[in-house]
Amino acid sequence: MSQKALDVFRECIPIFEVLRDSHRQNIIVSLCDRGELTVNEIAQQSSLSRPAISHHLKLLRAEGLIKVRQVGTQRFYSVSLQPSISLLKELTKQLEEVGEEREMKDDERSDT
Description:
This protein is mainly alpha-helical. The protein has five helices and two strands, in the order H-H-H-H-E-E-H.
């Protein structure tokens, strides 16, 4: 595998790690579906406690997958997926290029 593909893959690992949790997946989908939500609104849709939701939001925010907007004492959370999506698209591009190079080498070997 090319070094560039490996570098991009390693850059994506924190995204994969934070998204492997089903509760965080549910939070992301809820925010995509409903737009901005408070912790209480997210907790109402979940079996998790408010503190547990806050913990998951903190992890998602640390990876740049969500953003927060404060209005008075309320904190409104929303998705911020574009940077992560761009990185995952780059990973896909790199892996496709590696695969195409591998196929061309295989084709050259089978022609000889």
